[in-house]
Specification:
This protein is an alpha+beta fold and about 800 residues long. The chain contains 30 helices and 27 strands.
Length: about 800
């Protein structure tokens, strides 16, 4: 039996650019849909409509990974030395610290495979299909390429598909593309290879149908969907070591080499120069190694980070991976998603233009707080404004619901904004909808680009109300509604200029028109809605920036942090929002299509110079983050959609939204903002910088103690003296007094000027020349004081144990004084 030949589902098929007939032909799908035998054959060929299972690490392996750290290795080595010396109490303390450190890391750190699992959960569980001429409801996993799926409002799209027929179909693609409002779909082919957000002839797996109906031909399932490609990109994106851990690893390696060199020098000096027994000098070398190892440092770093976690949690920043606390304080660039992160993701009416007056609307988002104010003084009531507000309420399919968490919308966000506008005008929207009964309507379709309703009141008044794209509505109008309710001539050119002015401000515009009809008119035909209308005016809407985000961007600029906005929205809208936010460079932006045409040098230059990126795909975001990192920038990426997952995971620190964000974004990130507030990042950066300062202070405190003790042993060997301190005493000082005293430094309040200084240079080592000089200087002071006290006790004829006790107390006294 010959194996059937089916088309490849590779991305370069460019289904969006071919006709529906061509799609049917390529996928070998008859008009009545596939039959059962063909479905089974294709399922064997393509596999089920599922994302591939990620091979998960075992719990034991995940736990053991927590100990893959040079300082932990040094700490384990110190514990083994104490075991060899027979000091079980000290060994148990050391291994206890190691275990606690591992447990904290295991609990705090997120697991990357959970991000893949959360993306898989976005797939629809049930779907309706046309097979062999009949409608069936099937498990979404059973869908195959070539199936015809049936979509209606409220459905989650089960697979990537080419649209065959639509009736007012709109889909919410914000989690995939970043587009801030639902997208009107069409069956017409579009240009091949354009941005996903512009492929209007396609629907995408995991997105939501917000309005209308449609039939579509499945072109991709499982791994071959856009959602599947993002899943693969997120899985394959490298997880980077944080800047602090990179520096600690480097410091640990350097410290290990130095300790081994000093231990070898001690052994050679004792045996070859002083002629001491080899066994005794080996013990001295081990003592020096134990003295030099900062056993308490991993514990101090962990405690400092944990304190930072608590401080950030109080500011609504939930840390999922412990080292991210410090990384936030190191960032030099924040790449932020626009929709829902810098903006409210709540469409808001900002301006109204009637034939007589322009109005400004205050208040933002889905809240009834705000006013409508005229920009000039009306001579009387503006009847056009009253009729326009009524049209916005009646020519509308959305609903508002008051909940304990605020207003929830059902339907299109722009239509919901029109209901909020009615509330701001103190209109009773529910009562008006009851009073003006909808008799018939024409739903919005991408071909007609308008919606129309026929409404009757209880006083023998009937109206046709129309809303839609201005370029579609204006030619349908014979005149305009004047301030006194009369009709006047229409000047299309002046209205087009108003639309252009709104567009330059990044606002979307809806036009509203009306026609009075006979009360006996009960059927609404297309020709009724397209002739003899009177223009009521225009309404301009936008997804406004968060007020607190504007302040946070300003604070980030003052702290020397560059904020870059990445969005799936249009470039003009993005530039306007960027200007409102106060981004540094809003004169020029770049689209994903232009970005993809750049070579490696061009991408590197754009990553540095451009601050507004629009129509960006997940691959574009990932490339941008990696280009910034190659330029030695410590990069934070914020986002809320599944499309942000690869870049969130690859960034030095990924910041996801906790309320409005997707589970995929949260699981791919290191930090989750519980309040979805970009301003919280500024507070987290402040805390992160304070954490780094406190770690530096702890290092400056702990290392001179270790250095002084190591020099003490080396000096004793070179001078031919008895060791002033034993390894057990050294461990006691390092693990008990050094750690407990350093705890005070971990709780130091953040320095007042921390957000007025530039970010640390990414290449700056954790040990600056000043810090190194200070450690050496204080180490020699401790050496001088301790050796002097030890020798005085020996010269006074006191026993060696008494002299060593005095030496240990001198070290502790020096620590306390320092």
């Amino acid at each position: 039996m010959t194996k059937p030949s089916y088309p490849s589902l590779e991305e370069d098929q460019q289904w969006e650019s071919i006709t529906t007939e061509k799609a049917h032909s390529l996928l070998q799908t008859p008009e009545q849909g596939l039959d059962d035998e063909e479905v089974l054959s294709r399922r064997d060929y393509y596999g089920e409509n599922r994302l591939p299972e990620v091979r998960k690490r075992s719990v034991i392996r995940r736990f053991l990974v927590q100990f893959n750290n040079i300082l932990i290795h040094v700490l384990i080595a110190a514990g083994l030395v104490t075991v060899a010396l027979g000091e079980w109490l000290d060994a148990s303390v050391i291994f206890g610290v190691v275990l606690i450190n591992g447990i904290i890391g295991f609990i705090q750190e997120g697991k990357a495979e959970q991000a893949m699992e959360s993306i898989r959960r976005m797939l629809s569980t049930r779907a309706r299909v046309l097979r062999d001429g009949e409608h069936h409801e099937v498990d979404a996993a059973e869908i195959v390429p070539g199936d015809i799926i049936l979509l209606e409002s409220g459905d989650r799209v089960p697979a990537d598909a080419r649209l065959l027929a639509v009736k007012g179909l709109r889909t919410d693609e914000s989690s995939l593309t970043g587009e801030s409002v639902p997208v009107d779909k069409s069956t017409d082919p579009v240009e091949a290879g354009i941005a996903i957000a512009d492929r209007l002839s396609m629907v995408w797996s995991g997105t939501l149908v917000t309005a209308g109906q449609g039939h579509a031909l499945v072109t991709g399932t499982g791994e071959a969907t856009e959602l599947g490609r993002i899943s693969q990109a997120a899985e394959n994106a490298p997880e980077l070591v944080t800047p602090l851990l990179r520096k600690i690893h480097q410091f640990g390696r350097q410290l290990t080499v130095l300790i081994l060199a000093l231990a070898a020098l001690t052994y050679l000096a004792g045996t070859l120069w002083r002629g001491q027994p080899a066994a005794e000098m080996f013990f001295a070398a081990v003592s020096l190694a134990v003295a030099a190892i900062p056993e308490g440092l991993p514990a101090i770093i962990t405690i400092t980070l944990a304190i930072g976690v608590q401080a950030m949690a109080r500011r609504n920043a939930i840390i999922r991976r412990l080292p991210a606390v410090e990384t936030l304080g190191s960032v030099t660039v924040i790449c932020s998603d626009k929709t829902g992160t810098l903006t409210r993701n709540e469409m808001t009416v900002r301006g109204i233009q009637t034939p007589s007056h322009a109005y400004a609307v205050t208040g933002a988002g889905y809240t009834r707080e705000g006013d409508i104010t005229a920009e000039s003084n009306p001579s009387g009531d503006d009847r056009a404004l009253d009729d326009l507000l009524l049209a916005g309420i009646l020519c509308n399919d959305s609903h508002l619901k008051d909940t304990d968490q605020g207003i929830r919308i059902a339907g299109d966000p722009m239509e919901a904004a029109l209901l909020i506008l009615g509330d701001k005008a103190e209109l009773d929207t529910r009562q008006l909808r009851k009073h003006w009964t909808r008799t018939d309507y024409i739903p919005f379709e991408s071909d007609t680009r308008y919606m129309a309703t026929l409404n009757h009141d209880h006083a023998d008044d009937a109206r046709i109300l129309v809303k839609g794209a201005p370029e579609r509505i204006l030619p349908m109008c014979r005149g305009v509604c004047l301030e006194d309710g009369g009709d006047g001539p229409i000047d299309a050119r002046s209205w087009e200029e108003v639309v252009h002015n709104y567009a330059r401000q990044g606002r979307r515009t809806l036009a509203f028109a009306m026609k009075r009809v006979d009360p006996q008119h009960t059927v609404l035909k297309q020709e009724d809605a397209e002739e003899g209308l009177v223009l009521l005016g225009l309404i301009a809407l936008e997804d406004p920036p968060r007020d607190e985000a504007i302040k946070a961007v300003s604070e980030c600029r003052e702290a020397g942090i560059r904020v870059k906005m990445i969005t799936g929205d249009h470039l003009g809208t993005a530039l306007a929002i960027g200007e409102q936010l106060g981004l540094r460079n809003t004169r020029k932006g770049m689209t994903g299509a232009d970005f993809q045409q750049l070579d490696e040098d061009g991408i590197a230059a754009a990553a540095v110079e451009i601050d507004v990126f629009a129509r960006f795909s997940p691959e574009n975001k990932l490339t941008l983050v990696q280009a910034l990192q190659k330029n030695n920038q410590i990069t934070a990426m914020t986002g809320d959609g599944v499309n942000d997952s690869p870049a969130l995971r690859s960034a030095d620190v990924g910041v996801a939204m906790g309320r409005g964000g997707t589970e995929a974004a949260r699981e791919a990130s290191e930090v989750v903002l519980a309040d979805d507030n970009f301003a919280t990042i500024a507070g987290a950066v402040r805390t992160g910088r304070g954490v780094y300062d406190n770690i530096r202070k702890s290092l400056m405190f702990i290392l001179p103690t270790n250095g002084g003790q190591a020099l003490l042993i080396l000096a004793a060997v070179v001078a031919g003296l008895t060791l002033p301190v034993t390894p057990v005493q050294v461990l006691w000082v390092n693990m008990v007094t050094a750690v407990t005293l350093a705890l005070a430094l971990t709780m130091e309040p953040t320095e007042p000027n921390v957000m007025r200084r530039p970010p640390r240079p990414p290449a700056e080592p954790i040990f600056t020349p000043f810090l190194s000089w200070r450690v050496i200087f204080v180490s020699f002071l401790i050496l001088a004081a301790t050796l002097s006290v030890f020798n005085l006790h020996i010269q006074d004829g006191m026993g060696i144990e008494t002299a060593r006790t005095a030496a240990v107390n001198t070290v502790i006294a020096c620590q306390i004084f320092y």
